[in-house]
Amino acid sequence: MFVRYLHLYLFSALLIYSHTGNTASPPFKETQLKRNIQIDSEIQQRHRQQTVQQEAQFIPQTDIRMDTRQERNLQIPSAESPCYLIHHLSLIDYPSERLSQTEQFQWALDKAVADLQLRLPHCLGGEGLSILMKQIQNNIIEKGYVTTRVVAQEQDLGSGNLVLSVIVGKIGNTVVMDNGRVPRFTPLHALTAFTFEKGDILNVRNIEQSLENLK
C-alpha cells in the first residue's frame, strides 16, 4: 500500500512540475519568432526613413532664387584729396583695343551717374572711384548678371577721361546630375527647359527660370 501511495505522489509531483515549467517560460520557437518579427520591423522602419531622406534630397525646392545682395546707400564724397578732375566717363569691354567703344552695359554706368547724382566735371579720388564702381556693379547685379565684374585698368586720369572695363561672365558647360532612382532628365529636357546656352552672358534669372522648367 505504501508503495502505491509513493508512486502516486511521485506521479503527481511530476505533473505539477511539468505544468509549472510550461507556464513559466514559453517555448523557444515562439520566443525566437517574436524576436525575429521585432527585428524585421525595425529594419523596415529604418529602410523607410532612409528612403524618405534620399527622396527629399531630389525634391525641387519651391524657392530657388539665388543670393544677389548689393551694397546700398552709396554716396560719392563732395571733396577728396588727392583727386583728378574727370570730364568724361566711359564703360568698355575687357579686353578692348578701342577705348571709345560703347559697351553693352553702358546703361549701368548711366544709371549709376543718376543714382549718385554725379555731375561732371567732378574731382574723383580713390574713395569716389570705388563708390562709382560699386554702384555700377550693383546695377549690373540687379539685372541678374551676378558673375560680371567692373574693373579699372591702369590709365592716365590727368587727361580727364575715366575708362572703366566690364569683365563679362559667360556660361561654360552645363552639367545636370539626375540621381533619382527613376531618372527623369533626358537630352530633350535641355532643349525645352534651358533658356541659355554655352557662351551666353550668365544671367541668374535665366538659370532660375530653367530650374523652374525642370520641376
From TrEMBL:
<dbReference type="GO" id="GO:0008320">
    <property type="term" value="F:protein transmembrane transporter activity"/>
</dbReference>
<protein>
    <submittedName>
        <fullName>Hemolysin activation/secretion protein</fullName>
    </submittedName>
</protein>
<keyword id="KW-0732">Signal</keyword>
<feature type="domain" description="ShlB POTRA">
    <location>
        <begin position="186"/>
        <end position="215"/>
    </location>
</feature>
<dbReference type="InterPro" id="IPR035251">
    <property type="entry name" value="ShlB_POTRA"/>
</dbReference>
<dbReference type="Pfam" id="PF17287">
    <property type="entry name" value="POTRA_3"/>
</dbReference>
<dbReference type="Pfam" id="PF08479">
    <property type="entry name" value="POTRA_2"/>
</dbReference>
<feature type="domain" description="Polypeptide-transport-associated ShlB-type">
    <location>
        <begin position="120"/>
        <end position="169"/>
    </location>
</feature>
<dbReference type="InterPro" id="IPR013686">
    <property type="entry name" value="Polypept-transport_assoc_ShlB"/>
</dbReference>
<dbReference type="GO" id="GO:0046819">
    <property type="term" value="P:protein secretion by the type V secretion system"/>
</dbReference>
<dbReference type="InterPro" id="IPR051544">
    <property type="entry name" value="TPS_OM_transporter"/>
</dbReference>
<feature type="signal peptide">
    <location>
        <begin position="1"/>
        <end position="24"/>
    </location>
</feature>
<dbReference type="GO" id="GO:0098046">
    <property type="term" value="C:type V protein secretion system complex"/>
</dbReference>
